User: What shape does this take?
Amino acid sequence: MSLAVIGHVNHGKTALVRALTGMETDRLKEEIERGLSITLGFAHAAQGGVMFDLIDAPGHEDYIRAMVSGTAGARAVLLVVSATEGFGRQTFEHLAIAAALGLEAGLVVVTKADLLGPGDEAAVISQITADLRGTILEGQPIILCSAHSGAGLEAVREGLQALADRCPLPSPLTGAFLPIDRAFSLTGAGTVVTGTLQGAGLRVGEAVELWPSGQRASVRQLQVHNQSVGHAEPGGRVAVNLRGLSAKDVASGEVLCRAGAFAPSTQVDVMITLSVQASKGLKHMDQIKVLWGARQDMASLRLMEAGTLAPGQRALAQLRFATSVVAYGGQRAVLRRPSPVETLGSIRVLDPLAPPMKGRSGPRLALLAAVASGEVEAIVQALADWSGGILLVAEAARLTRRTVSDLLPLLVTDYQPLGEGQLVRRADVAAAKQAYVVALTTAHALAPMHAAASLAEVRKALAKDHGRDLIAHAEQVLALEGLIRLEGAKVALASHDPLTSLTADSLVRLGEIEARLLQAGLMPPDVATVAGDDEEATALMTLLVETGRAVALRNGALRQTLTFHHQALLDAAPKLRSHFAPPQSFTTGQARAALETTRKYIVPVLEYLDRLGLTRREGDVRQVLSEGDVPTAP
Assistant: This one.
């Protein structure tokens, strides 16, 4: 169990850690000479079956970044307060930072108690109790001790044991997440990185990645408390010997992760909370500094709900980074103003792989509000709403902070499979199918003499209320169920028969036009010759084509569309066969003479027979294929 040892400068943190563990955490020459911690110090001690990792954080305000690095990943805090000085400025700031990082429990140790006069203890405890009001340690145990004399140290150890019993366990992650606070090279071993392991365990031989650089390596060796282990559990300090990287390849602040478990992004959606102690509020597009893990990054603030955020308020926001960062859902971070330097508040990561924010999208805000609530059902419903009814399982797992295998059983009642890694709400499929039928019914009512409607127009009408993928799925289901007909760029209800909409006179005219086309054979009249300016006649010609009784063929050279009766085209094949018995070949000119037509018609006719599989072209000649069964007109 990792404990962040925090408090004001010179209040005795390092001396207390030394007294509890027998280890010296100040290792730099400058730290020893000045008696002032500059970097993080590490020590450990067993107490009541628990191994405590004590992370000694610098107390000076110039080393806030190191303090944040040491506190991130800790499960609780050990607040050190000098009995003779009481709370200092950094005491309050350290407590605020611990709260910003999501810590909720701790122990208050009042050091230098041997310097108090008779009867002073009660007053000191009373004042410290008052100073703790409103902080995360309000109501937590307060223990007086002296690292110099040893008085009270046993009570501190007992307090640590009790803290371990009541401290909440951290939320699990999909893989190991190790913010690197040190990287160095050892002779005979190679590159070693250290940090407080979060999320999940790490094994020797496991493939790992360093983010945001994206470099890959594998775990050669693991050490916990200077002992080699095959597996390191999350929550404590770990040294990782890497294979495949040199120490100079490891940049400050990188995160070592299990391969494939996390990914970098330049946009992170967050819930931001501005401290009531902030000197002023924040505005949309302000530049802020984000301290998380062992790194700090500058970000541009995109407020989603309003243009400003006042001290004490919280709001949904997106942080936009100039370079990629890596984070996880639920991660906490500290916000600071770059100039003048000030701790502003905190963020909680909602979506570490957020899409770029475009305006103030209501569905996106609803989704992030659901993520902030942590309720799985609400998150999944909001995600489906935002994505048009289609649920990406991997995205739902990320936002609910669950594994895919844990999430799927919760969705089986209300969702059905769609594609690889996709689900769709059963209710949305039913609604989309109904809407599709209604849209087609409306299209047929507006143009009853058309055999089918434009597929693109139907989809466009539905896109106002349904996602494109959902429309496509509903369309395929309707087709498989036999309720609609898909014919190239057209679609129709299976029950739609345009002939039923015709009057008796229109049916007579349709028969006359069809007979004229059939009689014309392979030299049909132009549409304009048949229909002229008569809109009904033009519509009837179109109906013949749509129902397959006629076929519209394009003569590309003449830029003309020619309309033939379908049976006339089919009758051309046996005529050619009678003149050019297989395997005899023929030219276009020979076919024109055999079919008694002209150059205007012969090329589109032969190309159509090729498409039907009745003839086959080889260079400048063709052959009629075997007799077989010739298709008949509908």
